[in-house]
Amino acid sequence: MKKLYFFDTTLRDGEQSLGITLNVRQKLQIAEQLVRLGVDIIEAGFPVSSPGDYEAVKEISKNIKGAVICGLTRCVQADIDLCAEALKYAENPRIHTGIAVSDLHMEKKLHLKPEEVIDLACACVKHAKTYCHDVEFYAEDAFRSDRNFLARILQEVIKAGATVINIPDTVGYATPWEFGELISFVKNTVENIDQAIISIHCHNDLGMATANSMAGLFAGATQIEGTINGIGERAGNTSLEEVIMALHSKKKEYPFALNIHTREITATSSLVSRITGIPIPYHKPIVGPNAFKHASGIHQDGILKERETYEIIDPATIGASQNQIILTARSGKHALRHKLFELGYRPESNQLDRLYGDFIQIADQKNEIFDQDLHTLMNSHPGH
Ligand code: KIV
Ligand code: ZN
Hints:
Elements: E1 2-3, E2 5-8, H1 10-14, H2 24-37, E3 41-45, H3 51-63, E4 68-72, H4 77-86, E5 93-100, H5 103-110, H6 114-129, E6 135-140, H7 147-160, E7 164-169, H8 176-189, E8 197-202, H9 209-218, E9 223-226, H10 240-249, E10 256-257, H11 265-276, E11 293-294, H12 297-305, E12 324-325, H13 333-342, H14 349-363, H15 371-379
Parallel strand pairs: 1-10, 2-3, 2-9, 3-4, 4-5, 5-6, 6-7, 7-8, 8-9, 11-12
Helix pairs in contact: 2-3, 2-11, 3-4, 6-7, 8-9, 12-13, 14-15
Bound molecules: 3-methyl-2-oxobutanoic acid and zinc ion.
Zinc ion binds near residues 13, 201 and 237.
Family: Belongs to the alpha-IPM synthase/homocitrate synthase family. LeuA type 1 subfamily.
Organism: Syntrophobotulus glycolicus (strain DSM 8271 / FlGlyR)
Pathway: Amino-acid biosynthesis; L-leucine biosynthesis; L-leucine from 3-methyl-2-oxobutanoate: step 1/4
């Protein structure tokens, strides 16, 4: 089985979200939990961006063991020097350097000719190699770049020593089949591609980051980048927990070896949400508060008979408590009986009709029925 590397950038791209500023202690706490989750690489920050980021990368390098610790740089020698300084205590350091490769970015943002971009990219990779063996090159805005130019620059940076090449969809513009095609193109066109790991890094502007990532993995990438809860610039990055569980649920289609401890997903997601102050949307796949709740009568009845009728993942797999049946005005008699049994009541089936009638009257006036409501209901029907 092929090894798949999980590259977590919650502390770098995730922290670039509007409204998030983490201190060193908070970043260390998240990094410790990411190791428990089993990610392979932690991108700890962008050292040149601020003294706080530099300090965080340094402290994570000193204190966090069990994962590669990575720092981001622009294609600027001084960035690389500072990043190497921050990473110097890491057991396994990685420098992640790169430059934009689309015509739009090269012309309007960098004011550089394509040949100049190639020269700069190679010089930076070579400079980073003087500090550490493990150098990842990102081709920013790769999805909107000219394909032949992309293939050329990737070939040259691999020659210069890049061990991982990152193909980002920086502005979340791809669809799954387009992104899969791009990865196939890179795999089939870049002559020395076997000397590097292909990494994918998707953004969620069109809501397709997870689907694009799955397509990229199907096409041959072996490193996936993303953040916990999908936090990140604008609409965010690929949600790592979604990719983990998609791979876990589809082992036959995606036969990868993973280091991930899925039971740590809920704890990791809650910690990131609590520390960043970014709430998890109700309907967020895998970790949303509603992700394992069943409110309609037909679904509740099915779940009580056989969990798999309406659940593709056992909540225990991600460390969440077992499915929670929420009683509402749409719940049926089966669900009411199940809840009452959980609370220690044993109504006879001929009493259940009357109880259910009263229950519906209460439920019609509330969004959700709590245990206390059921105790009140049962107090008005003594003898159970
Ligand atoms: O989205 C992007 O292109 C990035 C790179 C800096 C890796 O975050
Ligand atoms: Zn990004």
